Amino acid sequence: MSALLTVDGLVKKFGGVAAVDGVSFTLEPGRILGLIGPNGSGKTTLLSMLAGTLAPTAGTVTLDGRTASGRGAHRAARAGIARTFQTTRLFPTWTLRESLSLAHGERRDSRPFWSDEELAGLLGLGGQLDRRCTALTSAHQRLAMIALALATGPRVLLLDEPAVGMDGGEAESLATAVRRVAGELDVAVVVVDHNMRFLMPLAHSVLVMATGKVLATGTPEEIRSDEAVIASYLGGA
Ligand SMILES: Nc1ncnc2c1ncn2[C@@H]1O[C@H](COP(=O)(O)OP(=O)(O)OP(=O)(O)O)[C@@H](O)[C@H]1O
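Structure for ATP-binding cassette domain-containing protein, as requested:
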């Protein structure tokens, strides 16, 4: 299968310092890429360039061969790239259903899509649709962010630390939902998370960053036994 997302030589410098320094990878539809690395290694900066919120200093992001980088978040979203953030960003006084209807308005095409009930059921948010977003638990708020990102009908979903603050059972349910999103909707997913119990069984492949560069890529099994990765990151995880 050919690549949906192609990342080629991405660099982001802040002042003279390269937060991301020449990262390249490809991702096919329906595949889940885990992005890991120590604090400050450039994961969020990379995600922001994929999402169009940060313009690269050099390099390109292409979606189906079309340039998606450096054109702003709105155009990246229109091209089919959706992201969630480390912190929740919801309209506090709106219900989840109202928020979803706004997100549906951002959809790019009219392909059949999951209903709000199906989406809520998928993410373990059944019964939460008519509650105000502020009344949701913090785990439910994180899941609501994913529901909103999905409601835009993305082809690429970027998740920034989605399992933070979740217990083992909640993280497991989230992993099941992400697998279904990738498998049933053919969405390519990039997940950043420090929780290896969540990420390693979920990801089809893993990219490890260190000081802005790619330290290693491989299957979760290959990454777990990579000496350089163990020394720089997994040894303490
Ligand atoms: N807007 C900015 N201005 C200046 N430096 C920045 C900016 N954003 C990030 N950096 C720097 O870039 C480097 C990479 O940061 P980034 O947040 O991408 O790392 P990360 O791997 O996501 O870290 P964490 O796991 O803690 O979220 C860090 O040294 C950070 O201080």
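Strands lie at 5-14, 17-27, 32-36, 58-63, 66-67, 81-83, 156-160, 188-192, 205-210, 213-218.
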